[in-house]
Amino acid sequence: MRGAVRLGLVVLAVLIALAALLLGALPAAAQREPVLVPAVSQSRIEVRQGFTGARLLLYGAVIGPGGAARAGDYDIVVVLKGPTEPVRIREKARIAGIWMNAGSSDFRSAPAFFAVASSRPVREIVDERTAAIYELGTDFIQLSPSGLIDPEEQARFAHGLVELRRRQGLYQENPRGVTIREKVLYQARIDLPSNVTTGRYTAETFAIARGRVLASATARIEVVKTGFEGQVVAAAQRWSFFYGLGAIALSLGMGWLAGRLFARV
Amino acid sequence: MDVYLPIANLSVNGLYIVLLGGLTGILSGLFGVGGGFLTTPLLIFYGIPPTVAAASAATQVTGASVSGVIAHSRRKGVDYRMGTVMVAGGVVGALIGAALFRALQAIGQIDVVINILYVLMLGAIGSLMMREALSAIRPGMAGSAAPVRKRRHHPLVASLPYRWRFYASGLYISPLAPAILGMLVGILTMLMGVGGGFLLVPAMLYILGMAGNVVVGTSLYQILFVTMVTTMTHALTTKAVDLVLAALLLLGSVLGAQFGTQIALKARPEYLRLALAALVLLIALRMLYGLGVQPDEIYTVAPL
Fold this sequence. Notes:
The complex is a heterodimer. Chain A is α+β, with helices and mostly antiparallel strands. Chain A has six helices and 13 strands. In chain A, the strands form three sheets. Chain A has a six-stranded mixed beta sheet with strand order 2-13-12-4-7-9. In chain B, helix 1 runs antiparallel to helix 2 and helix 7 crosses helix 9. About 5% of the residues of chain B have low confidence.
């Protein structure tokens, strides 16, 4: 009997809590927001001999308010961004019948890699303003243009950069790249091509419902060159003189060896 | 066979690179040209960044020429004295070229200047060689009547002071002529990432009037040293020499160069010259077409 009473009390407490939730009486906003628990398949990607690119899995769970397993309907958008660098974009034009560089524009923070994966096309999930704030798409990358050029021209150059890198596989948009299971578990797949730049990458995951970002989480991924490849890069940068000597020695050695071998045959 | 190139920052099919190296190696042994004028554009076409392509091609040309120099010196086909004078000029030229390269890069016009240089020079040399080769093969065609005795060297060369004897070349001319020639080629080596053999060989034949049997070997000798200097300049300034890429190219080219040398000993020189002229003209036309046609990529990105 006492057990049944206790159960009854618990049910009552839950009902009260739910009622309070519906009325908006609970003060702590955090408890109403779902919580994102992200994970990455690899936090370190090693670029070494035979590297032909990598498939990165970003997965995790969305836990609803008060620890409820189901957070309701929501969308997931994952943005993976590589290290940014200042770049100069040049535009070719036909001058006297020859295609040559005519105009140029500088951007202070062009990411070396940028990929967006979402459970639905981003413009069905959020409005343009929100997409711009959270950089949810290759059209919304904050490139920080510098110099005095009119906005229209700047947009043209930015578009040129995005299109170029998209063709190189460095900027990607995958509107079906995230799968959500049982409204709890999500999984995003992002393919890194073999020409990725090394450095620190950040993966931002957003849980979005009704056009509003409910929760976000950030994970870091390190892309490094290791082994022989890493040593080659380090040598070329740090000991350039000896690297140059090495290159010359290699070419002389191989040429001489081939000459010797051929003479014997 | 996927191979990752650490400096070029991408993975390529190693077999293609070796084959490309082999093709340029055959050309190198056959004609005494480094083959850089073929390697660099093809590597760029394959997706390798232009600076890495040019720098690594220079390294490859070194290897291709060392086996060529060995093969030619074995049959006394190198005029070391002439070659050394040209190398001295070539090193000066490489340094001038490096300064020009930086200046053109800063204003963003290096690519178009390189392409125009290619078209002008390959076009001029190709047609000159084509006419010579045709008139040698079929007397009476291409204007000139019976095979006339060739002029020993250009009158301008004869007017230069301080004459030296170059026994192997059969010449008594001023060392300034080969030095200036070497310097001009050195500038091109740095600018265009080519050995410059396609320019040197005809210039040595038709301007200096060197004996035909030492032309190819001496040209390779000059290319060998100037590309070594170029490799070092790239390693120190652009840091774009990719050892893995260079090694793959070398593997193909050193073997190809040996084949080329064997063929060169058997084939008739007029026909070889005709073939080289046709190849040079073909590349010139392709590049001329490239200048006038809208490129695939209107935009290019350069780090600041």
